[in-house]
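User: Could you check the structure of this?
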Amino acid sequence: MKTLYLECNMGAAGDMLMAALYELLEDKQGFLDTMNGLGLPGVRLEAQPASTCGIAGNHMAVTVDGQEETEPAAPEAAGQDHLHHGEEHHHHDHEHEHGHEHEHGHSHDHDHDHDHGEEHHHHHHHATPGHIGAMIDSLPLPEEVKTHARGVYDAIAQAEAKAHGCPVGDVHFHEVGALDAVADVVGVCYALYLLQPEQILASPVHVGSGTVRCAHGIMPVPAPATANLLAGVPIYGGTVRGELCTPTGAALLTHFAQSFGPMPVMTAQAVGVGIGTKTFEQANCVRAFLGETAGEANGEILELVCNIDDMTPEALAFACSRLLEEGALDVYVTPGTMKKGRPGHVLTVLCAPEREGDLARHILTETTTNGLRVRRCGKYFLTPGAGQVQTQWGPVRLKLAQGYGIAHAKPEFEDAATLAREHGVSYQEVVKEILGKL
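Assistant: Sure, the predicted structure tokens are below.
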């Protein structure tokens, strides 16, 4: 199986992920030409050879009107407050606003001296999630790329809204909505589209440690939005002080990686190295390994099972619907014969391993059972995706899935049914045209 493994021993940022993936591409210049031809105002990408602790790689310099964002001076070195700006922790310095002014300064290590001369600040127009989505929609890229990019920004907006206690619609991007950060997100999504891995895995994420000062006071590392995005992901701190994983890096990892853990047994065919601009005692990079893994199970799923012989069909059906609402992946009931020959039902609830405790409690709450069994199973699955096809009656979204050399495509039922109703044609006629275009 074609597998991409992302090693995040020094966290992750959009520019570093893009640089690592760029090194894996066969047509590197074609990637840069496409990105630089998107029409993002003043934005330009340049892959710059770099090294860290003797490891050669590339730094992806993203400039806006010829200026690459830089970090502000560290407070220990400059004797001044360090403002916590938002995007990429390795070199970006943006302002961020949620309806009122507050600045962020993601720094890789606040005890490490900087020497950037005077500070440079680019004041980009604030943008809502809707503005960012419209910008992405207008780009001349495959629909799959744009769908993933919108998904990444939706996750960031929700995490920022939760962190700041405001509605998602009130989030105003600066550090993650600036043009260079849009280029980072779109660039990673486009590189993955070109690479077409069948599965994407990642290591546990090093988030850094310590605190960072912002306009509201001292903020812990990882920053609140980053922590929200990494919920359920294995993370660790360590001795490196500062913020190593940015909101954009966290959003990209959680959007694409199917699981987080040690590198699987794989035959690596290429290694990409994306390098940050700061210097540490350990290599400051993200590495991307592209190769083949055996056709083994690519995930794990739990079955929570119990026998029930004293619930009415109505009560059992209600319990099943509640378990789905609580996050079960699937719930189904099969008939069975219980003790003393009584007819009954076997309830099976499928869930992700990290939801085991929560779903077990919900089963005990919603049903009459006094106990249940847990079965841990390997899981084979196709990587989900999304697309769109244009019919004579209008667009229809597609559910896509691929892996193991297999590709599935299925039209969204509601889209096809809506077109059939609106235009007085049969559902089968709409589906026939859709399938003819796949």
